[in-house]
Every structure is written in structure tokens, then in C-alpha cells.
Amino acid sequence: MAILTNSRSTFSAVGIREDLSNIIYNISPMDTPFLSMSGRGTCDNTLFEWQTDELATQAANQQLQGDVPDALAVTETVMAQNQTQISFKTVATTGTAEAVDFAGRRSSQAYQMAKRAKEIKRDMEFMLTGNSIRVVGGTSTAPKTACVQSWLGAKTTATSNLIDGGASTVVGIVNVSSSVYANGTAVKTGTAPTVQLTQAMIDLVVQRCYEAGGSPDTMFCKPDLKVRLSAIAGASLAEIRTQTKGDKPAHAINAVDVVVTDFGTFKFVPNRFCDQGSIGIVYVMDWDYWSINYLRPFQTLNLAKTGDNVKQMMLAEYGLEAKNGRSSGAIISVKA
């Protein structure tokens, strides 16, 4: 069937109003598990310090009646310290761009600043879950806070909570000098993973955390390792639920988010931003011992006006406090 001769259509019409949605759809992920689950604190200096301590190893303690004991040798506390670092992003908008009517936002500058705040949070999640060491910084070097992997484990390989799955399930700290461990200056490096994550690795790191005194309750890792964790926990084959109420359809369950182990109940949390290059890492966290300390919390700074524009900076200055790194652990250099 042909269109009627001289019928007016939209293909060549002039003056049709634009149909532009007043909503801006942004698919970029914003969940930041490490930032959300860690504690939040404050600090009053770019270098902030805290102390860690441990009880003496348990031993048989039987004493003679009327004995005159010698004083015990005292082990001093360990002084730990970390550095704050600065993260910021700057946005400039011309006066004209701020004056015109944009769809989906009342102010172009405010919209861009809100985006920058979210981007900084994602940057923080990526950096804090890494293996960066502490850098004091200087006039030409940006300071850097020592991140998670700089604090995990223990000073001796045999009891380390950092398991090098890529080499062996019994290897402890990787490339660590025990003399500098306490100050976040020890480097732990992994290799491209060739070994698949196993239940034995998980059991060992959880056991070592428990023996050290920690009570971790969360494992987080990049998405493909989360799938592997679910498979290990018993969901590698879908379970068909037939016991549904009414006309509701049956559900196929092929994921595990919580698992009960010999040493506690764990949540499995996927984290899009904790993948450090090609190294597969599973973190085992006791959140009571982790805090992000802010010297300057998130704030908007108005910068000098240099012309017909609005210029602002979104800034945060913060550092990671690992109150006691032995509370938590990690399995590194493993694949799904």
C-alpha cells in the first residue's frame, strides 16, 4: 500500500519540537564496599600514629608457694604510622554555560561537581584496596597513604595472614621486611595468577586470622573471583526450588552471599574496583580494625575567578588506619 499523494509526513517536516528526557541515565557503578564498611575517623596532622600490642604467648603457669618472683621483661608497644594523601578534581564552567537551560540539570556546574565527588570515591576505593606503600611526599612528590596490602599479615612467614596462592598455600608474606612492616612501608607483590582459588586457601587464611585474634566476617574480591567463591561454597550447580507459594515460578539459585565456616560467618561481597592489574586478590576483613581518617573531609572549594567562568575544586584529604593488620588477611595471585 502506497502513501497518499502529497500527504505530509514527519520525514521532511519543519518545526517538530524536540523530545528530550529530563533525566540523565548514568550506568557507571557507584558501590564502594571498602569505603562503606570501614570505620570513619579524623586526624589532626598529615602524619598520624597509633599503637599496637599483643599479649604474651600462653604457657603453663604453675608457681611455688611463697616464691619471690622476678619482674617480667616488658615488651613495648609497636608505634605505627601512616600518611594522609589528597584527592581532588576541578571543574570550570563558562558563565554562558551556567546561564543556559540544560535538560536534566538545573546547574551545569553543580551537576559536574556531583559527578566529580562520585569519581573521587571510586578512586579512593581503587587506591585503598591496593598495595601502595606510604610516601611522605615533598615539594615535587605527592604524599601517599599506605593501603590495605601494606598492613595485612604478620611479621613471620609461618603465621602470616597473607597467603600467596600463586606459589603455595603455605607461603606467607611475600617480599616483606619485618623491620618496616609496622609503618606501611613493606611491599607485597603478586604474580599473574596461574593457580585457581581453592577451599584450602580460604580455610588457611581464615584460620590464621582467628589464631592471631581477629574475627573477620567479610570476603571481597573482583567479580570473577566472587563467582568462584560461590562455586566453592556449594553453588556450582543450580538448585531448583519447587516449594513456591501460589502461582509464583520456581527459582534457580546459583549464588552464595553468606557462608558459615569453622571460624565464623562470612559475607561474600563483589568489588568492581579492587582488581590491582592482573593479580587476583581475595580480601578477608575484620572491619573493627580499619578506619579511613580524614584530615579534610569532602569539601567544595571556590577557586579564584579569572574571567567569565565558575571554577571549583572537590577535595578530600585522608589516610588509612590499620589498627592491627593481623586481624585481616588476603589470598593473592589466584584466578577464578
What is the strand and helix layout of this fold?
Elements: H1 33-37, E1 39-42, E2 47-52, E3 78-83, E4 85-94, H2 95-99, H3 108-128, E5 162-164, E6 195-196, H4 199-212, E7 218-221, H5 223-235, E8 239-241, E9 251-253, E10 258-261, E11 264-270, E12 281-285, E13 290-302, E14 309-322, E15 329-332, E16 334-335
Parallel strand pairs: 1-13, 5-15, 6-16, 7-11
Antiparallel strand pairs: 2-3, 4-14, 7-12, 8-9, 10-11, 12-15, 13-14
Provide the residue-averaged pLDDT.
Answer: 81
Q: Structural class of the secondary elements?
A: alpha/beta
Gap between N and C termini, in Å?
58 Å
What's the count of strands? 16
Beta-strand fraction estimate: 25-35%
Number of helices: 5
Explain what you see.
This protein starts with 32 loop residues before the first helix and ends with a strand. It is extended and about 115 Å long. 29% of the residues are buried. By secondary structure, it is α/β, with parallel strands linked by helices. The chain has one domain. About 3% of the residues have low confidence. The strands form five sheets. It has a six-stranded mixed sheet with strand order 5-15-12-7-11-10, with helices on one face. Helices cover 17% and strands 27% of the residues. The protein has five helices and 16 strands. Strand 13 and strand 14 form a beta hairpin.
